[in-house]
Amino acid sequence: MKKFSRLVIVLIVVLTAFLFLLPSIQWYYMTPKDQQTLALGSRDQIRDYSWRMARVDFQKIEAKFNANDESPLPDDLAYVIPIAKKAYKLYKKPLPQVWTAKAVASVLSPSDLIAEMEGYYRTKILNLKNLQNNAVKLGLDLSGGLSIVIRADIEALEKKLGKTLSQQERADAVNRAIEVLNSKIDKFGLTEPVIRQQGTEHIYVEIPGAADPERINSIIMGRGRLAFHIVNEEASQALAEYLQRNPTGINEQNVVADPGIIPPGYVVRKVYKKDAYGLDEWTGQYRVITETAGLDGNHIKDAAISSDPITGQPTVVFHLDPEGGEIFYKLTVENVKKRMAVVLDDRIKSEATISEGIRDSVMITGFNQEEAQNLSLILRTGALPVELIVESQQAIGSSLGEDAIREGKNAIIIAIILVIG
Length: 421
Fold this sequence. Notes:
Blueprint: H1 3-29, H2 33-39, H3 43-66, H4 80-90, H5 101-105, H6 110-134, H7 140-143, E1 145-152, H8 154-161, H9 167-187, E2 194-198, E3 202-208, H10 213-221, E4 226-230, H11 233-245, E5 266-274, E6 280-290, E7 295-296, E8 300-307, E9 314-320, H12 322-333, E10 339-344, E11 347-353, E12 361-364, H13 369-381, E13 388-396, H14 399-420
Antiparallel strand pairs: 1-3, 1-13, 2-3, 4-7, 4-10, 5-6, 8-9, 9-12, 10-11
């Protein structure tokens, strides 16, 4: 083969490989370490960082505005200019010649400016998190991290249920445990874990990078508590009216200062929704619900998204075991036309009005697609049916991996030179 032909083939292969590896190159070589650390943090940490940085930057602009500083905005605040330009165009105002703090403040209210600043930082870090997700993942031999082997205690589950599980039921229990682990680990923003089944009862977890073993154990072993409660509409309305008159009349533990507001046998819980970070955000609303759950989430066998055959709107369908079906039927027959709250770890995640007695197959409507997906995941993973036991845990250093990466780079360069030569 001629030298030129070999060169063309090598260039085509290198270009193709470059396009596939571009996210990896951008992540590992073009993203500063401090930005990587932020992107690898939990969504809670990203939210706190974005909130803090937005207020720090706002204070800088506020100080320049109060000092009548007519100088252009510095480079670290230049990201505000495109935001302000959109506002000027929206209000059909002529663009200023110089972008000063006064020019920005004249078209954006403090609350709007802070929200836009937070959105800038949020988008920036979440985009980096997506970039990391698209990059080639380094195994523990290259990046270091934790290797964990977990056993699903099927025997304990059989004792709890009072029966011997079939092979399919055993597989379903382990699969659901894997789904729960994925949900939990994703919630805490841990670095792109590997979770896979080993054999019939074991689960293998790899968490690359630096990780706190105690924190990992608490995430893996923590159990969500899912339950269904009936909402007391009259007491909820009375509480809302009371808090309008007395905004500080309830503490962080949801204890009302005036005990006469809440009837005996009922408790107060907050209502949550997903925010822009995909995290739970309090809506500002409270509900008064039955203190004792009408149904425990352990009776849920499965949950899935479907669509209403008439309206085509998303619905959530879940199925109960025989015992749960009987309990739920009695609960719904006795509470027709009342609201039922889906409560996970003392947070109300969803509400639905009971239209009729329901036994073992339940369909909940009134959601958009994203809300239906969230509720379906909550129902599937909120109550872990099988106990998990950590059988082994090993921390692997990354020093050997750094040497292997360096040697690999040198080998690639030498190979290309030899092929072209």
